[in-house]
Amino acid sequence: MRVTFVHLSGSKRGRAETLDLDRIRIGSDPGNEIAFDPAADAPVRPFHAAIQFANCEFILTDLRGSGGTFVNDRQVEEVILQDGDVLEFGLGGPKVRFRVRPEERAACLPFRDILDDSKALARATYRGPRVDFQAVAEELARRKLIRPATTGGFLGDVQPHQLTYDAQTAAGGSGGPLFDERGRVIAVNFAVLQGFPGANYGVPIRLALDLLGPPPPKASR
Question: What is the DSSP letter of 137?
Answer without folding.
Answer: H
